[in-house]
Amino acid sequence: MGGGNLQKSQMARAKKQATMAKEGAGGGGSEGMKKRQADAGVHAAANAERAKLKEEREARNAAKVAKEAALERKTAKLNKEAGVPGTELTDKEKKAKKLAQAQAALAAAEAGLPPPKKEAKKKVGKADKDADDEADAMDVDEEDKAAAPEALEAEGEVNGCHAEDAEADGGAADVAMAEFQAPKLSEEELAALHAKMAAREAMLAEKFAQEQAERKQAEAEANAATVITAIKAKKIVGLSLDEFEMLRAAASSTPSDALLTNLLSADAAGCVLYKAISQTNVCVADLAMTAASAAVAASLTSDKAEPVFSKLEAILDIVPAKADVAERVCIRVLQAAGELVGHLGKGAIDRFLERTQTLFAGESSAVGAAAALAAAAALRVAISKGSVAADAEPKELLSKSLDGVVSANAPAESRAAACGVGCAVGALGVGALLTEGVVGKLEEAMASKSKSAAHAREAATLAVGALCISLREKFEAFSIPMLPKLVKLLADKDRKVADAATLSARAMLENLNTLSVKSVVGALYEGMQVVGGGGRVKIECLQLASLLASRAPHTMGPCLPECIPLVIECLNESNGKVQASAEEVLPVLCSCVENAEVAKTLKEVIMLALRKPDTTLACIDEVLMTTFCNPMDGTSLAFMMPILLRGIKDANYELVKKATVCTGNLCALIKESSDVAPFVPLLLPLLDKNLEHSSPDVRNATAVSKTKLLEGAGDEVDPLKRAKALAQAVREGINAAAPSVPAEIATYLGETTSALLESKLGGVVRVKYFEEAVPQATEWISSNLAGVVDLGEGAVAGVAREAVERFKEELSESAKKILADSGDKDFALDMQNIILAFAGRVLLRKADIRFQRGHRYGLIGQNGTGKTTLLNRLATKDINGFPQELRTWYIRHEVLCDDGIDVRSFLTDLAPADKKDEATIEGVLERVQFPEEFKTTYVNSLSGGWKMRMSVAISILHDPELLLLDEPTNHLDREAIDWLTRHLLSLEGVTIAVVSHDYDFIDEVCTDITHYDNGGELGKPCRFVYYPTSFKGFQRLKPEIAAGLPHADKMPSAAPSVVASEAGSEAGGSASGTDSMSRVDSLAKSMDSMSVATTESSSDISTTLNKVEEMIAAGLILPMRFPDPGKPDGVRTYRKPIMTLKDVNFKYVETERYVLQGVTVQLTLGSRAVIIGGNGSGKSTVLKLLIGDLEPEEGVGATWKHHNLRLSYVAQQSLHHLEEYVTVTPIHYIQERFRQGLDAEVGKLKSLALTKEEEAQMKESGACCAIIGRQQRGRHLWYEIQKTGRMKDDTQFFPQTEIEMMFKPYVKKLIKNFDQKQQAIESGMAIRPITAAEILSHLADFGIDSQLAHGKIRQMSGGQRQRLVICAAFWSKPHVIALDEPTNYLDNDSVAALTKALKDFKGAVVTVSENEAFVNEIANEKWVVEGGKITVQQIRDAKAR
């Protein structure tokens, strides 16, 4: 195939380049050409070893690809063959070795091979080196192109395709699809792929069926256990445990004959079946009916059918004392008898018909309906067996019953006639309706006002309900047009007619096919508006709407935009019964909402706000704080709009503003313009009015909201356009194929088939669904035409096929494209048209998550676009369309664990139920190479690298099909990253989605890049664009995008100089733009020029950092400006120590291993100290010891901090500081943190915070209870101490050295706390006003604008929270800032601003960081932690910060 030829041509090109490079540039022009050609043989020999090694490696990988990847990952392989090699060739200065290696690595990844071993790399290394040196020195000329015509042809096709598509449509998605168009498969390959996918589908179907059976069995076992417990507790009386087990045995898949034997041997009242069906317990009753059916079936295969029927008759003759028990027994026995009697002789059938006709006239409507169904079932079987003629008893019964309807003069006659009609038509089939004119006669009787037949209207109304029960959907073509008449009869003055209408309407909707819901709701809406009658019509219609919602939530949902306003009117009704009914119905209607946020997260607050208007503001606040991952449809808006309309009309300015903002936000989330169209006439006049509101905030919010409303509404499109077109196509197809079909049935089939296709195909667009739709529609039409007309299956299939094709024509262009592109791809996750919105910002809109099975996706995009939020929602599986059966596991960037839990316990707690045994836990820890001494270590004592391995171990236990990872390389050293890379590459068949700013890691791991594309417009909602290539391939293809991506722990990668011009042309800009634009582009280029590869990039970074202020002024970078702390009193130079550790040891309580031993370091005011080392070496431990968050081993060494020093600390996890404040604003957070004039976070350090034991010691008589003063006496500090039990003025001064010897250790903490207070007073922090204005000014210095400052912290992204924590740390104007991994979660802009700010800071800096470029730029000394020791490397003088 094309990929193999491309590989060969690349190898040939590599050999040619190496040969040409070796002879050098000595021969120019034609003479040089001849000389190179003459020497070609000599140089070919020099490259023989290298070429041989390459060929062997490629042959091995190609063989693997041919055997395994052709079937398992065909699509991914083809995409990569089409994409990666082509993009490799576009880089004309690419080394020959890397070209071949990229192909080999690709083939190895496709085949699932492990990475090459180091030994193998060494063997190739020497042979490659010389050729690399030669290839590096040359350019590719025309002869090089001639050496690889196939490769260049492929390159031209890709680039040409790119250009054509870009010209036709600037959309990045179309360009990407064109560039990665896979070659067409041969027929044999397609057949193999189809066979593999069919086998997989069959396997999944079998697995699903097995899981369903297991689930059903588990439910049955649970129910049985509940019943057994109830029997033992005497809560179920009259049934023993042995008798219950007999029922279970009879109802099992291999039924026992014990129940049948008991039924025949025992008397009627004493048999187990009678005892069971008498029970009120639903589980027992259902089990009894299953067992009864099994007994009936067993009797039919033996000679016991007649005796069983006789026993059932005997049970029917029993009259229990309680009416409800009598009714229950009669209904259940009739059902069993109906299954049996049709197989018996004429005598038994006649007896049964006589009995059931007697029951028809009974007062119980439920018994009458059961009798009619049982008799109809018996007659159908008898007619099929020939024991009863269709034109005999059934037809006679129908004629007699119709006459009875017309002449009914008593309630019993009405019931008997109605049940008779239902029974007879149920036995004869729908054809009898037409031949006997049943519907016309019933309608005539319903309109009758004959005094001689006072109950005719009641009888006819009841007969409609009886037909709905016996014929179900086959009667709907006739019953649905009659529903408005039934609703009207609910208010009839004749109470018995109104009661009959209630019964019939309920029977109709209880047996209604879900496809017919939209056809009946109009009549109910009319009923909800009926005035008078004591509110009966409203109450009945509300309850019927609730019935529909519970039976068919999916089809009832789209009807709610009309329904909810009417329910709200009923909720405000003065009639208490109507109001109570509306309150009861609302939660049921809410179950129709498919939007997970409204249906689950917000359901309670919405229901409360609908019932209690005074909770409107709280509800809207909660909506504004909610993350939306699903689009808002008309159903969801139906519940929200009454609340929003109420808020917009309110007199409270704050509520009006928030309601207006919320309205705009929700309108931006709509799925289709038709969803918001019904609400435009309600909203637009209110918004127009508020454009003249007295509050400027309201006016501004209104203008934005109106714009979003009109954009969402778009052009007015009939939302029923597609449904009408489909219904018409089906109706016309049926009429053409069978003109004799009644118009009612043709219309009904048109509407229901349209609803069927809308339900099947109207959501996610999948090829499979369209293939399944034709047989499903065929089956539906055929089943409803049976008994009406004999239409061949081929003709019906033609009608169904035409309807499906018509549906395809009505699809949107984007849906058509998805359908065309899906092909034979195997998607593990396929969710279309999703939305991600949070805190009023739409981050993703109309995005398609389409992850192919076994592919590894790198999710890339700017910070704040919702990458982490999306992973959170995928992990919770609450996005519409997420396959709940897909095993999913999420490895988060933070491990949250309570203190005191060791690694083994943590894994055991999180392991699946079947993998909690010790052997499994030990096995998985060994698999992730967890050291033995760490297995008993507390989780919170582990370094970031070992926590990541532990998280991977947990994911292995859960064996996910979809693995999600969020910033997995944060806190990892190179070795840990390499290990994680190898692990992820070893996972076969697992779909992986990774969010990371480490693009080297993304490049090594991911097969596909998923770009959050906003078209280059800041703040615009993104969509997903897929690139089936590595990150480097994406970088070459889209350098202008890659250059602007955020890097969490690295500076931005270098980009070609052509990037700026390409970006400008795509954005529609001009090459000769204004001066200001040129300046911005120049600054952007400076950012793009920064490199992370080596320390040689320092000069580039420095050049860029010199322009940070200019870039901030141009709006390219958000600022970070640190305040000047001044010098502490007593510290005159930058070289004087201000903090020290001397000969310090440290180990965690739970382990005997020392993390640090004999450590000595010092910090000066001029220090820029960066602590570096491997994962688990103790970097963060050193930092915490220095600042006092950990205390060293007692009695060994010493820690010291200058008493006038102000210190601030930013922990590795920013949430550590914010966890108590996520529900408040940044302003409130800073106010609370510094309310006492001190930094509350510093006060939590272990060297400052008193334990409960120490607080108890302070209360002892004579103990030091407070430090209230300090004096400098010579070189020593004296502190004024107050003791417990003494007078307040009875104090005493002691030198600090004596205090440490005379008093208990806690007094040291009191001294440190007193020093903190003094520092706050001296710095002015204690009197710094914590007003909103002051805090806003401070926040602005750190790039946090007013909108973020007034929003909740939980709305902020990880990078924004990191900025907030750094900002809060500088409120106290510290002399020393301690930062643990400060670049985590920050994008490249923020890293540049932070770097510049730290370089300019006039205090000391001590930080832990793995970011090499960041370290090299800010550090003047490095503290290398290794083997429990620290080596200090001085880079620059402290004064030369």
Low-confidence stretches: 1-47, 67-183, 1048-1101
**Rg calc:** 40 Å
Large-scale geometry: elongated
Whole-number mean pLDDT = 79
DSSP E strands, number: 21
Q: Sheet bearing the most strands, described? A: 6 strands, mixed
Structural class: alpha/beta
Q: How much strand?
A: 5-15%
The number of helical segments is 68
- State the helicity in percent bands: 55-70%
What is the CA–CA distance across the termini? 60 Å
- Name the strands of the widest sheet in spatial order: 5-6-7-4-8-9
Please describe what this structure looks like.
This protein is of the alpha/beta class and 1441 residues long. It is built from 68 helices and 21 strands. Helix 67 links the parallel strand 18 and strand 19. It is elongated and about 125 Å long. It starts with a helix and ends in a 7-residue tail after the last strand. The relative contact order is 0.04. Residues 1-47, 67-183 and 1048-1101 have low confidence and may be disordered.
